[in-house]
Amino acid sequence: MSEVLIATKNPGKVKEFEAFFAEKDIKVRSLLDLEEPEDVIEDGETFEDNAVKKAEAIGKAAGLPVIADDSGLEVDALNGAPGVYSARYAGKEKNDEANNLKLLREMEGVPPEKRTARFVCALAVYLPGNRSFVLRGTCEGLIAEERKGEHGFGYDPLFYVPSSEKMMAELTSEEKNTLSHRAKALQLLEEKWDLFTE
Ligand SMILES: O=P(O)(O)OP(=O)(O)OP(=O)(O)OC[C@H]1O[C@@H](n2cnc3c(O)ncnc32)[C@H](O)[C@@H]1O
Ligand SMILES: [Mg+2]
């Protein structure tokens, strides 16, 4: 396999997939490269449902192997919110800045020991003629009281990674790609790699 289509329009995700597949000499394309990609409505109740929905809709239309990523942040003090609504937490239009500010507001007054959270990534793989499969990676951390760091995307400036003693947005992309929820799901995918490339 020399090329894989990632069913995402998120440039931050695309960069992370490119880093993973570059090592395997596989070229990454995404919906950002297509002229009129199908718009898939993400109305599933779980990350897995949405990931499979994206992978199958795009994969069937393209007739190609496709990987889709549905991911987000689960905050314990908010009963798991924003969860599957992470991309549009502060409103319909995707806006990382507004989402971060809303999260800070919702977490006002929550003491440090109750600020536990995790990033979750469900990766669905669609192979033409086969059933899809889906894998999950998670990364545990804490929601900080202010934003810090310039790297990454989404909620990275508010997500403290205890093992690194840094915010996710302070890590280099190489560091993030060793420990993130997406990296962990990709490690599981690597274990299934033979199935994928057969
Ligand atoms: O659906 P696609 O086109 O892939 O792009 P999206 O941005 O809408 O992606 P999701 O539907 O999976 O929503 C995930 C949201 O969760 C957040 N998120 C996911 N992974 C993240 C990461 O590694 N770092 C920070 N925030 C992340 C971010 O706000 C994303 O917009
Ligand atoms: Mg989305």
Give your account of this protein's structure.
- With 198 residues, the chain is an alpha/beta fold.
- It has one domain (3-197): Maf protein (Alpha-Beta Complex), CATH 3.90.950.
- Helices cover 31% and strands 23% of the residues.
- It has helices at 11-22, 47-62, 96-106, 173-179, 181-191, 193-197; strands spanning 3-6, 27-30, 66-75, 116-126, 133-143, 159-161, 166-167.
- Strands 2-1-3-4-5-6-7 form a seven-stranded mixed sheet.
- It starts with a strand and ends with a helix.
- Residues 42, 87 line the site of magnesium ion.
Q: How many structural domains? A: 1
* Chemical compounds bound to the protein: inosine 5'-triphosphate, magnesium ion
Query: What CATH architecture would you give?
Result: Alpha-Beta Complex
Strand content range: 15-25%
Task: Report low-confidence residues grouped into runs of 5 or more.
Answer: none
- If helices are DSSP runs of H or I spanning 4 or more residues, what is the number of helices? 6
Q: Supply the helix-strand structural class.
A: alpha/beta
The backbone outline, from C-alpha atoms, is globular
H/E element order:
EHEHEHEEEEHHH
Could you estimate the helical fraction of the residues in percent? 25-40%
CATH class: Alpha Beta
Number of strands: 7
Which topology does CATH recognise? Maf protein
